[in-house]
Amino acid sequence: MLDPLPPDLFDPACPSSATPFQIGDKWAGMVLVCLADGPRRFSELRVPLRRVSAKVLTETLRALERDGMITRTSYPGIPPHVEYAITDLGRTLFPAMEACRAWAARHLPAVESARAAYALRKA
Questions:
Q1: How many angstroms separate the CA atoms of 59 and 25, rounded?
Q2: Count of C-beta atoms within a 10 Å radius of residue 15
Q3: Own/partner pairs for 90-93, CB < 8 Å, 24+ apart?
Q4: Could you tell me the pTM of the whole model?
Q5: How many CB atoms lie within 10 A of CB 32?
Q6: What percent of the chain is predicted at pLDDT more than 90?
Q7: How buried is 44 (Cβ within 10 angstroms: 0-12 exposed, 13-18 middle, 19+ buried)?
Q8: What is the Cα–Cα distance from 25 to 102, expressed in whole angstroms?
Q9: Which of these, 33, 76, 90, 118, has the minimum number of CB atoms within 10 Å of its CB?
Q10: Per-residue confidence at 104, pLDDT binned at 50, 70, 90?
Q11: Would you say 28 and 98 are in contact if contact means Cβ atoms under 8 Å apart?
């Protein structure tokens, strides 16, 4: 029998609540990859990210900007336009993202098997 988990297992002062969620966000990593080679306009991002709604893409861009992963630059003109660019801080996520991709390449079949077995048990 295992000992009960202590109620103070997680320190309330732990910085995990302030950690950017982006690395696990469904679209943020893809946005960062789209910006890896240089600044892009919203309409350019929509092309490879066609499965994401404009609303969710906007929310993702705002969250990335808020956390310092990207910059948003507004240019005057007719019509005015906005470009998004990855920051040096945002680029620091690429090694972690690559590690996640490598893990998935090795373990995705096992995850899919587990999901299929779970679905059968629940059916």
A1: 11
A2: 7
A3: 90/32, 90/35, 90/64, 91/36, 93/22, 93/23, 93/29, 93/32, 93/69
A4: 0.78
A5: 21
A6: 65
A7: middle
A8: 18
A9: 76
A10: confident
A11: no
Q: Minimal CA–CA distance to 24: which of 84, 113, 123, 103?
A: 103
H or E segment and range at residue 110: helix 94-122
Say if residues 87 and 70 touch (Cβ distance below 8 Å): yes
Tokens 């059968």 locate to 120
User: Which residue type does 107 have?
Assistant: H
Predicted local confidence at residue 101, as pLDDT? 85
Question: Of the candidates 23, 25, 46, 22, which has an alpha carbon nearest to the alpha carbon of residue 34?
Answer: 46
- Measured distance CA(99)–CA(111) in Å, rounded: 17
Q: Please report, as a single letter, which amino acid is at residue 114.
A: A
Length in residues, the chain: 123
When the pLDDT of each residue in the chain is averaged and rounded to a whole number, the result is: 87
Q: Where are the alpha helices (DSSP H) in 4-93?
A: 28-34, 42-46, 54-66, 88-91
Give CA–CA dist 117/109, Å, rounded.
12
